[in-house]
């Protein structure tokens, strides 16, 4: 029973497919919840069950404190998902902040349980071992004014402007974004003393008008194939219906071709 409660709390899966061959677990962006990515379930065929991870401090977990660091977050997600991930093949999709969480969870699963996704799909983020990731760690997030965070959120896009008209929603979004960046700053991955951690294929998606991301460093993280796709749009290119169709078709093809 506790396992089930944990599952429902941490994972949103509106389109359950008990007979699916593979699970696609999605990880949201900073400040984000499960609403968009969990809805992808209806775009996929019956062979793939889609769920989205729900982080503390938002949606039905609003009353819970935010995660204090990346390790705590990874431990919670892993403990809830572990049983399911041991049952059948799985793939991860993460966008922006979610890309880094998905990588950290995948790394923990591999190092501690010998489990590996059949495919990692990352979007709108640097390779976690890239020098380009380092400036994120030095943003003085505690001292940054709410107004500056709000401006940044607006520049990134992805948040309907009518939501930002509501003071309470706006305050909560800024607070959530701030906390998520703080968690991201506690994440460090030092490639130097390790072997290549993964053998799965990795696909990197980016918006063509987004700031370019350093993806080359992914080559040091997996012995599998790496492919790169630029889709039309800015940081939240993935919310465009035409891009959503491309992503879901492409992800389906990759999963089905992985020889399940």
TrEMBL record:
It catalyses: (9Z)-octadecenoyl-[ACP] + H2O = (9Z)-octadecenoate + holo-[ACP] + H(+). The keyword Hydrolase applies. The keyword rRNA processing does not apply. InterPro entries: AB_hydrolase_fold (IPR029058), TEII (IPR012223), Thioesterase (IPR001031). One of its GO terms (biological process) is medium-chain fatty acid biosynthetic process. Its EC number is 3.1.2.14. Keywords: Fatty acid biosynthesis, Fatty acid metabolism, Hydrolase, Lipid biosynthesis, Lipid metabolism. Residues 23-243 form the Thioesterase domain. GO terms for molecular function: fatty acyl-[ACP] hydrolase activity. PANTHER family: S-ACYL FATTY ACID SYNTHASE THIOESTERASE, MEDIUM CHAIN (PTHR11487:SF0), THIOESTERASE (PTHR11487). Belongs to the thioesterase family. This is S-acyl fatty acid synthase thioesterase, medium chain. It comes from Nyctiprogne leucopyga. The gene is Sast.
């Amino acid at each position: 029973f506790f396992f089930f409660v944990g599952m429902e709390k941490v994972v949103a899966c509106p389109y359950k497919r008990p007979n699916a061959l593979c699970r696609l677990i999605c990880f949201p962006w900073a400040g984000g919840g499960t609403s968009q990515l969990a809805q992808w379930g209806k775009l996929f065929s019956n062979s793939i069950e889609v769920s989205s991870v729900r982080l503390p401090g938002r949606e039905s977990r609003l009353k819970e404190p935010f995660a204090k660091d990346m390790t705590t977050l990874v431990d919670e997600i892993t403990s809830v998902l572990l049983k399911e991930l041991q049952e059948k093949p799985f793939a991860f999709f993460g966008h922006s902040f979610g890309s880094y969480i998905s990588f950290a969870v995948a790394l923990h699963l591999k190092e501690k349980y010998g489990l590996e996704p059949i495919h990692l799909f990352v979007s709108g983020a640097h390779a976690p071992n890239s020098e380009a990731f380092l400036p994120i760690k030095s943003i003085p997030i505690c001292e940054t004014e709410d107004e500056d965070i709000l401006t940044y959120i607006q520049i990134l896009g992805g948040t309907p402007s009518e939501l930002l008209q509501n003071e309470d929603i706006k305050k909560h979004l800024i607070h959530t974004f701030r906390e998520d960046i703080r968690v991201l700053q506690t994440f460090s991955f030092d490639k130097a003393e390790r072997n290549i951690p993964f053998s799965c294929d990795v696909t990197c998606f980016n918006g063509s008008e987004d700031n370019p991301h350093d993806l080359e460093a992914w080559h040091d993280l997996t012995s599998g194939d790496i492919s790169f796709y630029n889709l039309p749009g800015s940081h939240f290119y993935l919310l465009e219906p035409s891009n959503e169709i491309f992503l879901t078709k492409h992800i389906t093809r990759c999963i089905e071709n992985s020889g399940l």
